[in-house]
Amino acid sequence: MVSRFIPTTRLERYDVVNKKGEDMGQVQTFLVDMVTGRITLAVVAFGGFLGLTDKWVAFPFERLAWRPRDNKFLLNIPRQAVEDAKGINKDTWPKRVTAKWLENVYAKYGCSPYWKGRIGVTYNTGEKAPKTGVYEYLGHVDPRSCKINCQPTDAEREIALSKGETFPPLRSCGKAAIWKLVRAA
Question: Considering the entire predicted model, what is its pTM?
Answer without folding.
Answer: 0.59
